């Protein structure tokens, strides 16, 4: 497991290259000051969300835990993929108050894909 720390200015998206092939296993986020329950932090592969952190406690400096997307939560990021944009995470804060946010992205570097012998 690799932990990737990310700091975002208020309402500023960031694209972070992944260090190796893997998936987003978990996301923790903390907003700097009072926020609303409509503050959201989205971790995506290109524009497909893989994990979303939604504020549940409006007091600032409270650690919030993300929820993996039920369909796309296990999408694989790969810096060597034939689609270059699959080698980076798009991290986007949205909604609610315009507040800076810090996040820890737990990146599982043991991701694998099962292939049929005919596809290998």
Please provide a written account of the structure.
The mean pLDDT is 91. The protein is mainly beta and 120 residues long. The strands form two sheets. Strands 2-8-4-5-7 form a five-stranded antiparallel β-sheet, with no helix packed on it. It has strands at 2-8, 14-17, 23-31, 40-45, 48-54, 64-65, 67-68, 88-94, 101-108. The protein has one domain (2-108): Jelly Rolls (Sandwich).
* Mean pLDDT across residues: 91
Number of domains: 1
What order do the strands of the largest sheet run in, or round the barrel if closed?
A: 2-8-4-5-7
Number of helices: 0
- Low-confidence runs of at least 5 consecutive residues: none
| Helix fraction bin | under 10%
Number of strands: 9
Structural class by sheet pairing and helices: mainly beta
Question: CATH architecture, please?
Answer: Sandwich
The coarse overall form would be elongated
Kindly identify the CATH topology.
Jelly Rolls
Provide the succession of SSEs.
EEEEEEEEE
- Measure the end-to-end span: 26 Å
Give a short overview.
This protein has strands at residues 2-8, 14-17, 23-31, 40-45, 48-54, 64-65, 67-68, 88-94, 101-108. It is mainly beta and 120 residues long. It has one domain (2-108): Jelly Rolls.
